[in-house]
Specification:
Alpha-Beta Plaits; ten-stranded mixed sheet; globular
Length: about 240
């Protein structure tokens, strides 16, 4: 029986989502927990990977179990065995569902602290601690909308097809913090963090808002801004038909 789960996790203590030899990862932790329930190894397939230190509000994954178990019982068992920094919100039986290939778009959010350094939020919000021009960042963010080749905003030399669709980018000031929401058809490795890092350079007035268009056209990673730290990034939602 195939199951779909929606779950959240604090990525600050994990070496990313994907299984890695001799490293603590979210995928391995889920697989180990499910093996205890299923009494056999279980393959966990997520909607996508997140890097070391990145968090998720609503990650989605699927897996197949050999046992007959109610969704309510499976949810309770998972949350009993899993560590407290991973929490399963929903369990559903879903035949023929594929968490990755059935996804049509994703939403990420990123948080930046422009105020005084906060030691308690250092693993969850980028402690930039500098004033940013939010209006200019908002102007620049709209240059990302539509279909573009994001070669300038992905890990250099790691992607064959860098064309993605960005449906929405919203930059909001919330007290001393800035929240950046990005909805797209899919994202390349480091793409969101590189977009955010470049937007902060606009906010610091190192580059102008319209420079984003030229950076996209250049298809050159060296033309974009810094890669924002992983700590401020959250996978908020995965969309399906």
């Amino acid at each position: 029986m195939r199951f779909l789960i929606i779950f959240s996790y604090d990525g600050s203590k994990y070496f990313g989502f994907q299984k890695q030899k001799n490293q603590k990862t979210v995928q391995q932790t889920l697989a180990d927990t499910l093996e205890k329930i299923n009494k056999k190894p279980v393959t966990v397939t997520p909607s996508g990977r997140t890097d070391t230190g990145v968090h998720a509000y609503n990650q989605v994954a699927h897996f197949d179990l050999d046992i007959n178990i109610k969704t309510s019982a499976l949810k309770k068992a998972l949350n009993t065995i899993l560590p407290p920094d991973i929490y399963v919100k929903k369990v559903q039986k879903k035949a023929n569902f594929h968490a990755r290939f059935d996804a049509i778009k994703k939403e990420y959010v990123y948080f930046i602290n422009t105020g005084t350094y906060n030691v308690f939020e250092k693993d969850y919000v980028w402690q930039l601690n500098k004033k940013l021009d939010v209006v200019k960042m908002q102007q620049a963010s709209q240059c990302f909308l539509g279909t573009h080749d994001f070669s300038s905003f992905c890990k250099k030399g790691k992607e064959d097809d860098c064309v993605r669709i960005i449906h929405e980018v919203v930059v909001k000031k919330q007290g001393s913090k800035i929240k950046i929401s990005i909805v797209g058809s899919g994202f390349l490795r480091y793409m969101v963090r590189n977009m955010v890092g470049t937007l902060t350079e606009v906010g610091l007035e190192k580059i102008t808002p319209d420079a984003i268009t030229n950076i996209l056209d250049s298809k050159n990673r060296c033309q974009a801004g810094i890669k924002a730290p992983a700590c401020g990034l959250y996978l908020k939602k995965v969309y399906y038909d």
